[in-house]
Amino acid sequence: MSIRRPLQRMAPLLALSVAVGVALALLPIFRWGGEGAVRTVDSLTLVALSMYATVCAVQAARSDPGPGRRAWTMMALALTVRTVGSMIWAFRVIALRPNTIPSPPDLWYVAFTLLTAVAMILFPSGPLQGSRLRTVLDGVTATLCLFLLMWMTALHGLYNSYISHQGVPVLRLLFAMGDLVVLTTALLVIGRAEPRYRSALWLITTATALVTATDAGYGHLIGTGRFHTGSLVDLGWAAGSIAFAAAAHLSCRPPAARRPASVPSNSSLWLPYVPLLLAGTIGPAIVMSGLEAIIVPFIMTAVCVRQSVAAWENRRLLAATADQALRDPLTGLANRTLFHDRLTHAMMLRQRDARSVAVVSVDIDDFKMVNDSLGHPVADTILVRVGERIVGSVRPGDTVARMGGDEFALLLEGEEDQSYVVAGRVVEAFDQPFVVEGEKMLLHPSVGIAVASSDEPDLVPEALMKRADVAMYAAKRSRSLGLHSFSPDMALAGLDVTALARRPTDRPAGDGAAQIRLLGELRRAIDHAELDLVYQPKMHLRSGRVVGLEALLRWPHPQLGVLRPDEFMALVRQHGLMRQVTEFVVTRALDDAVRWEIAGVDVAVAVNVFAPDLQDAGLPDALCGALRSRGLRPSLLTVEITEDVILSDIDRVTAVLHRLREQGIRVAIDDFGSGFSALSYLRDLPIDEVKLDRQFISSITEDTRAAAVVRAVIDLTHELDVTVVAEGIEDAGTADWLREHGCDIGQGYYFGAPVAASMVPELIGAR
């Protein structure tokens, strides 16, 4: 975050500090108004500044909703004690003009020092930064070592100079000890504090250092008898109050985004041992002689080095722990916590730098089938490979995270166009099969992307992630390979995310790895239009003419050969691929019809339509639009449906069928007699053809009961003005029987096997 805003907030305080500094510096020089005026103005100014710092600390405590409130409350109490001491001092200087040392305000100042140390310890430390007890012990160790060093170098002589003043030596030692406690505590706390408090703590440390230096100068002037109220040394106390107020001002700013757990800084490891090292090396040289003056410093150095090495090793362990806490244990990618933190930071930078932020949501389709078929160890191996593929598709600096299960997320920053390029590379990464235990498996990802636009400055990270998920679920619903970008109409459409996320639990029988591999190859074949159609002729039984063709789906598999629908349609139904297959069949059949028409062959074509499309109210308009765009008449197309399709929602299906017939498209019931409500369908549904199931047709020449049923159905359908088509005619005897009993159209290998689209003109010409 830019420091411009905090500086603007502190501008009045900076101006005040400059004005006070200039006034207090000029006051003792020019002695305006005499000694009395100087003492009064100087004392009251220090009291006012102390009160101002107290008010600022109270405001900081009120504005902090987190654990920092206790620290600022204690700091406000400490500054209140200091203010009381300053008021007593001012009263004595202005009214009583005493010259006794020690004086009552000194006790208040000692209490202020101790309370400030407690407030410093109460500032919240960052995660993994150690306990407050450890900070206290480090502070005590450093304070005692520094005090010992100062005693041997300076305080011992100062103590002797005060020896004739009752109570002064002890008071001076308390001041020195207290100042050292606050200063060392401040330095130790800074290295362990949460990042949002460090700027304020640096200012508090600066204020403490100013007060410490001023107290030292005050003690020296008192000892030499040269101190008087209004001297330049008062500038240090004034500057300390202003620094305390500045720290409180800085703490009142809104908290930044919470950062992930971090390890202690390098300085916090060795800083507590510096005073010990100094006291243990310099001190013996002063107070010892002989061999001890040489050995003791070496011992202290070895102890400090050993402790520093132990602290460094602990830091390495903490660093590893912190990293593991932010990483997915399986793939080593970022986890949800780290991803959300980086996204929050990126959104904050977007507001400042006006750059693009995109979130990509990736979900592996049908991964439950992998778990159920191959087991969790193999599934985990595949997830690791998926993570490697995604990482290999992104740029340095992009964030890839595993959000849980088979869900991944990407954070892309920079140009918006580049974000789409990277997301497209992620989709392409799944074109190649995954090789696991010698098996090749094609996995299909559903990928959605959402970009934070520049006209949405208040967009929050959670909303951007939700948009990416909505786009991903739209991709899952469409079942098409490719990148889906979020658009507002997706949210308005009210996508049922929960329903879309549910996957079928049942799977085809057979080897799990083979089924997974076959499903991946089927998805690829559908996405790249690698399926094929063949056409079986429909013969008019009396004239022998070809009156139509039925489009039959085939899958030319590169290893398994040409697969018929019964070998892969179970996967199509169970994994939500029926809509894409229907679209492929209709598109290919109409394109072939156009080519036949150009070749001079005008023949009707029948296609099978599955349940999801037949329940779509937009199907009639879509089919008519496809016919119109190719210049084909509607009666050229026959839509074949099965009884099990109708059973699911007969009212909606009936409405769609009525609209199809109104548009001129013919409707046929396929596999008639294989369901349970055939007669009611003849009565209620708007149909043009009934196709008798091959199970009835195959035995009519041998089974009198089957023959009676077929004869009755033929008579009944003719009464309803419906054309009868017999499927599965394999021999001349069956064809003759059907012709004699009035069946209209026959279809089967007796009349010809299915042929490729290119062979249809020749087939029609031969007939």
From TrEMBL:
<dbReference type="InterPro" id="IPR029787">
    <property type="entry name" value="Nucleotide_cyclase"/>
</dbReference>
<feature type="transmembrane region" description="Helical">
    <location>
        <begin position="73"/>
        <end position="95"/>
    </location>
</feature>
<feature type="transmembrane region" description="Helical">
    <location>
        <begin position="107"/>
        <end position="124"/>
    </location>
</feature>
<dbReference type="Pfam" id="PF00563">
    <property type="entry name" value="EAL"/>
</dbReference>
<feature type="transmembrane region" description="Helical">
    <location>
        <begin position="12"/>
        <end position="32"/>
    </location>
</feature>
<feature type="domain" description="GGDEF">
    <location>
        <begin position="355"/>
        <end position="488"/>
    </location>
</feature>
<dbReference type="Pfam" id="PF00990">
    <property type="entry name" value="GGDEF"/>
</dbReference>
<feature type="transmembrane region" description="Helical">
    <location>
        <begin position="44"/>
        <end position="61"/>
    </location>
</feature>
<dbReference type="InterPro" id="IPR043128">
    <property type="entry name" value="Rev_trsase/Diguanyl_cyclase"/>
</dbReference>
<keyword id="KW-0812">Transmembrane</keyword>
<dbReference type="InterPro" id="IPR035919">
    <property type="entry name" value="EAL_sf"/>
</dbReference>
<protein>
    <submittedName>
        <fullName>GGDEF-domain containing protein</fullName>
    </submittedName>
</protein>
<keyword id="KW-0472">Membrane</keyword>
<dbReference type="InterPro" id="IPR050706">
    <property type="entry name" value="Cyclic-di-GMP_PDE-like"/>
</dbReference>
<feature type="transmembrane region" description="Helical">
    <location>
        <begin position="170"/>
        <end position="189"/>
    </location>
</feature>
<feature type="transmembrane region" description="Helical">
    <location>
        <begin position="235"/>
        <end position="252"/>
    </location>
</feature>
<feature type="domain" description="EAL">
    <location>
        <begin position="515"/>
        <end position="767"/>
    </location>
</feature>
<feature type="transmembrane region" description="Helical">
    <location>
        <begin position="273"/>
        <end position="300"/>
    </location>
</feature>
<feature type="transmembrane region" description="Helical">
    <location>
        <begin position="136"/>
        <end position="158"/>
    </location>
</feature>
<dbReference type="GO" id="GO:0071111">
    <property type="term" value="F:cyclic-guanylate-specific phosphodiesterase activity"/>
</dbReference>
<dbReference type="InterPro" id="IPR001633">
    <property type="entry name" value="EAL_dom"/>
</dbReference>
<keyword id="KW-1133">Transmembrane helix</keyword>
<feature type="transmembrane region" description="Helical">
    <location>
        <begin position="201"/>
        <end position="223"/>
    </location>
</feature>
<dbReference type="InterPro" id="IPR000160">
    <property type="entry name" value="GGDEF_dom"/>
</dbReference>
